[in-house]
Amino acid sequence: MVTRTVADLADIGRGKTHAQLLSYRARGRSRYRNAPRLRQAAEEEESLLPGDILAAAQTIIDQRHMDAESSLGCVAARGGRSRSELYRAFSGQAESVAPAIWTARLERSRRMLTLSPALDLSVAQIASSCGFLDPSNFNRMFRTRYGMTRREMRELDRDRSENG
Q1: Deepest of 23, 24, 81, 88, by most Cβ within 10 A of its Cβ?
Q2: What are phi and psi of 159, to 5 degrees?
Q3: What is the pLDDT of residues 86-135, one digit of tens each?
Q4: Is 160 strand, coil or helix?
Q5: N- to C-terminal Cα separation, the chain
Q6: Cα separation of 33 and 58, whole Å?
C-alpha cells in the first residue's frame, strides 16, 4: 500500500521515475508504454536505499539537530522515509537515530561551551540553541556523555588554554 502521495515524493527529491510510476498506477494507466521502463528504474532506485537513507538521515541530523522539535519522526518525514526504514538503515551503526540526534546536540553544546567566553553566552542560552528544552535534562545528559559537568568542562578548557 502506498502511503505517500506523488507530490510528497517529488518534494522530497526522490527520482521522478518512481513518482511517475506511482502517478500512472494511481490513474489506472498500468499499460502505459513507459511503465516497464519506469518500473525497472523504480526497482533500481529501491535497491540503493539503505545507504542512501543513512546518508540522508545523517545529513538531516547534522543540519537540524539544534531544532528542539527534531526527532526520529521529523528525520523520517524530512527524508521521506518511514520510521522503520530509518531503524533498518541505522541497524549496523554504533547509535540508532535518536541517540545520533542527542550526540549531535551534545557535541555542539560542548564546542559552544569551550568557546563561550568568546561567544558571551550563558549555559542556558547554549542549551537552548542546541535543542535542549530542559536545562536539567541537558546537565544530566552532558555529565553522562562526558563524565563531567559543563562547568568542569569549561574549567578544563580554560586550564588548557592558559597552559598550552
Answers
A1: 81
A2: -65, -40
A3: 888 888 889 999 999 999 999 999 988 887 666 678 888 888 999 999 88
A4: helix
A5: 61
A6: 38
3-state helix, strand, coil in the chain (%, to 5): 70, 0, 30
- Which pLDDT tens digit goes with each residue over 8-66? 434 444 444 555 545 555 555 444 455 555 455 545 545 445 568 888 889 999 998 88
CA atoms within 13 A on the CB side of 139: 8
Q: Taking each helix axis from N to C terminus, what angle separates 135-146 and 97-119, rounded to the nearest 10 degrees?
A: 100
Phi, psi at 124, each rounded to 5°: -65, -40
- All three cell numbers of 128, joined, read 537552548
- Backbone CA torsion sign across 67, 127, 158, 117: positive
